[in-house]
Write a structure and sequence with these properties.
Elements lengths: L6 E4 L13 H7 L6 H10 L2 H6 L5 H8 L4 H12 L5 H9 L4 E6 L3 H10 L6 E6 H4 L6 H11 L6 E5 L2 H9 L3 E5 L10 E2 L2 H10 L2
Parallel strand pairs: 1-2, 1-4, 2-3, 4-5, 5-6
Helix pairs in contact: 4-5, 5-7
């Protein structure tokens, strides 16, 4: 990584939020009778409703209604507010750096959920740009979403540092010349540059400034 970094591209799930997206499935099973679980599994795995919502093909309301939720707004908020764990160390990291670097959110998520997450956790002021799969209709690790990101933020690949918890996402971004650090919260085997906390990410930035 060079000293020309001007932009930090940061993932949401597994980085700013400690959980990956898979926690929504047990949340849903928890809220329906066991007799409904096979139907829900079919919708999620065979009909790929979650994937469609994450690509913006259907809305959050349509997605949750199809699963059987009556009050879709409540369950979106309840899931985000009470079942996701925000990494509080992101705030001190962001306060230190968001005026020095352009912060960009690059998240695979349902569009409405991403908007509510950044509002609820008080993150909007930090991000100059937010690129969400549900709005741009493609997702990591597809190279297209990195192209879209670079064009939208009007930055060169070598000026960006991408922080993500997925090795596949990291490797895909690097194909376009984007600098990348694995946020290795789950201690996966990876030979490249990695951190497992915002404190370590802070140190990594200092080393490359």
């Amino acid at each position: 990584m060079s000293n020309t970094i001007t932009t930090l591209i940061i993932d949401m799930y597994g980085v700013i939020l400690k959980e990956r997206t898979g926690i929504f499935i047990p949340y849903t099973y928890e809220h329906f009778e066991a007799s409904e679980h096979e139907r829900i599994k079919t919708l999620l795995e065979k009909e790929k409703l979650f994937a469609k919502a994450g690509l913006g093909e259907i809305s959050s309301h349509h997605f949750l209604s199809a699963l059987g939720y009556k009050d879709t707004e409540y369950h979106m908020k309840n899931y985000i507010e009470n079942y996701l764990s925000f990494d509080q160390f992101f705030i001190s990291f962001a306060e230190k750096y968001y005026k020095r670097y352009d912060f960009v959110l690059l998240s695979t998520d349902v569009a409405e959920w991403s908007k509510y997450i950044t509002k609820f956790f008080g993150l909007d002021k930090y991000f100059k740009h937010k690129i969400v799969s549900g709005e741009v209709h493609c997702r990591k690790p597809d190279l297209q979403i990195y192209d879209i990101t670079l064009k939208q933020i009007q930055a060169n690949a070598n000026e960006c540092l991408f922080i993500d918890d997925s090795i596949n996402n990291i490797l895909s971004a690097q194909k376009l010349g984007i600098n990348a650090i694995l946020f290795n919260r789950y201690n996966e085997q990876y030979a490249g540059e990695q951190v497992n906390s915002f404190e370590e990410l802070d140190n990594a930035l200092l080393l490359h400034s």
